[in-house]
Specification:
The complex is a heterodimer of chains A (about 250) and B (about 300). Chain A is of the alpha/beta class and about 250 residues long. Helices cover about 40% and strands about 25% of the residues of chain A. Chain B starts with a strand and ends with a helix.
């Protein structure tokens, strides 16, 4: 278990097939404790499939996958207790208030009501949502929904949180506030695993992987990748990598 | 003569103002962008332009017609691609396209030339059901269906939201090709960097147009000084700069920070010293040209 003391995720030769289609083609990577890991890729490259496997929602076809020190084949339920997950589409119940959503999720994770009360008060203070806590989630602007959904995903203080396109469509100011929350989570020793289509956000990650057609075709710090692809920013890295691949396929 | 002309347009949903006194004009064959986040009012505006929703008040002419009264005539001149995939999932690619052509009293053959560059990419799969297509293919089919009757104005509601950076570029290239056929294009997007690809844009936030014009015009009306701060330590430097005296705002932009300060009040050296005094070294600071996102942040904060 020495490796897993430094790495919160270890993936070796991960393959996932749906019928004849290979969604994840021999993935190998590690995510270190308390880093922000950007998991980028084109639409349909296989990111969501990989996240589902890492979060214990889907079995791999083959390969070794360890998350928070546990094997995804054997300990899916323990893994789920140790992670948070903010999905691309659904994250909060629209017909419940902010407070009810948080109580519901915290209850599922087995937090005691005293603890919930305490942490909820902390959260209200931090986000400045005193006026908002009794409102239905559906009446909130998207930016607020996403900030609250993130807070819900880490409410049980997981070791690791998966964020699947958390900032899509969010205004530029709130998008940056969202990143402040991410940095704060990292300071509290939560590892962040994030996907995004905003390539400026890729620059805020400690390390990045880029998936193309089910494979990881690039992996490194933003600075390393910019050097490797002789690019001035991550947008250029991404375009070079994905576009070349598209041209090869034609 | 404008293709779209809007004065003092208002629309409320209950007590919530969705559009608050909007003014904008779009010229013929212009590529016009409505740029803004979720909740800005882009979709409401598009639904009013396309005659799907009536405004509460204000003046509105589209292709010389009044969408409230002349909607039958107007709809023949419009192509509309809504934000959600709205084609028939159980019909094939070809059936969907033929259906839309027939509804508009034309044939696929008659306007094939207009859709050829887009439709030919999905034509090899023409018998596949629309519900079984990938995101990119759905988008191409939706665009073909919106164009098959050769509209004067093509209106696209967030066609690139949630789409990866490369597919987004390819989509904008398709739109430029469509523009070359003389069609006026109005497109909305939450990706502010896409503004640079439009002839003219309106930056929208919370039901208001906070700035409009060509991307260069908007950039040149930025009233303050913008400094670009390069550092290896983005979050740490950001924290330090939030304490800068008389700060207007500071934001991260990928691998650099953008610092906005009152015009002609601070020299770059003062900024370097300020950061280095807090123990962060290797700082580079230079004056920079504001991007659309800088303008958006500035104008939406000053309009609160």
């Amino acid at each position: 278990m020495t490796e897993t003391e430094e790495n919160i995720i270890e993936v070796k030769n991960l393959v996932k097939k749906f019928g004849n289609f290979t969604a994840n083609d021999n993935l190998c990577f590690e995510v270190k404790k308390s880093e922000i890991f950007g998991f980028l890729g084109a639409n349909g490259a296989g990111k969501t499939t990989a996240i589902k496997i890492l979060s214990g929602l889907l079995f791999p076809t083959s390969g070794k996958v360890m998350v928070a020190g546990y094997d995804v084949y054997k300990h899916r339920n323990i893994i789920k207790k140790n992670i948070g997950y903010m999905s691309q589409g659904f994250s909060l119940y629209e017909d419940l208030t902010v407070k009810e959503n948080i109580e519901f999720y915290a209850g599922i994770y087995g937090l005691r009501s005293k603890e919930i009360k305490f942490r909820f008060a902390e959260l209200v203070e931090k986000l400045g949502i005193q006026d908002m806590q009794k409102e239905f989630v559906k009446s909130l602007p998207l930016g607020w929904k996403q900030k609250i959904a993130f807070s819900v995903a880490i409410f049980h203080k997981p070791k690791l949180v998966f964020l699947d396109e958390p900032t899509s469509g969010v205004d530029p100011i709130t998008r940056r506030q969202f990143w402040d929350l991410i940095y704060e989570a990292v300071e509290n020793d939560i590892t962040v695993f994030i996907t995004t289509h905003y390539l400026d956000e890729a620059e805020y990650c400690d390390r990045i992987s880029i998936m193309v057609d089910g494979r990881i075709d690039a992996l490194g710090t933003p600075a390393e990748l910019k050097q490797e692809f002789n690019a001035k920013n991550m947008d250029e890295v991404f375009v070079k990598l994905v576009r070349n691949n598209n041209l090869q396929n034609e | 003569m404008y293709e779209i002309e809007i004065h003092n347009l208002c629309k409320n949903f209950g007590k919530t103002p969705a559009l608050d006194n909007l003014n904008l004009v779009v010229k013929k064959n212009e590529f016009y962008g409505l740029i803004g986040p979720d909740g800005a009012g882009k979709t409401t505006l598009m639904r009013i332009i396309t005659s799907l929703l009536l405004p509460d008040s204000g003046y509105l002419k589209v292709a010389g017609l009044d969408p409230g009264k002349d909607y039958r005539e107007l709809r023949l001149k419009l192509g509309y691609m809504p934000g959600k995939f709205a084609l028939y999932q159980d019909l094939s690619i070809e059936e969907n396209l033929t259906f839309f052509a027939t509804v508009f009293g034309t044939t696929v053959k008659e306007n094939y030339n207009l859709i050829k560059s887009i439709y030919s990419q999905i034509e090899p799969f023409k018998n596949r059901r629309a519900g079984k297509l990938s995101g990119g293919m759905k988008q191409k089919l939706a665009l073909s269906c919106a164009l098959v009757h050769k509209p004067e104005i093509l209106i696209l509601d967030e066609p690139t939201t949630g789409v990866d950076a490369v597919s987004r570029r390819e989509f904008w290239e398709m739109l430029n090709e469509i523009k070359s056929h003389g069609i006026t294009i109005v497109v909305s997007t939450p990706y502010l960097e896409e503004a640079a690809l439009c002839d003219n844009i309106a930056l929208m936030n919370k039901g208001k147009i906070i700035s409009s014009g060509s991307p260069e015009e908007i950039s040149s009306t930025f009233p303050e000084d913008l400094f670009i701060v390069e550092t290896k330590y983005i979050p740490q430097t950001l924290k330090v700069l939030r304490q800068f005296p008389n700060l207007i705002n500071v934001n991260s932009f990928g691998h650099s920070l953008h610092l906005v300060l009152k015009k002609n009040t601070v020299q770059t050296k003062e900024i370097v010293d300020f950061i280095e005094n807090k123990g962060i070294s290797n700082i580079k600071v230079k004056k920079g040209k504001p991007e659309i996102e800088d303008s958006f942040i500035y104008f939406s904060s000053s309009n609160l």
